[in-house]
Amino acid sequence: MSIDKSLKRKGGMTRTRCVMKRSERILKMMADGKWSDANSPYGLPKTRVIKVAIKKKAKKEAAEGDAAAPAADAKK
Q1: Which of helix, strand or coil describes residue 22?
Q2: Model pTM greater than 0.85?
Q3: What b/e string do you get for 35-66 counting C-beta neighbours within 10 Å, with b at 16 or more?
Q4: Residue 39's closest CA among 31, 29, 47, 49?
Q5: Domain residue extents for the chain
């Protein structure tokens, strides 16, 4: 049974997950070379999701602030 649209939260699953799904863990282990076809898909070790930090656009804001300063000096 599904949840009615009016009861769903807007941001649903916006936070970072702490572990991967089984299929994602197997793909990660394959990429790292730790997986073979003889391994069982059950009882896999937990693999943390690497949190990607997004840099803020500080350079753009700083550039706008630097451009505004000379303009303010010119008005004097």
Answers
A1: helix
A2: no
A3: beeeeeeeeeeebeeeeeeeeeeeeeeeeeee
A4: 29
A5: 16-75
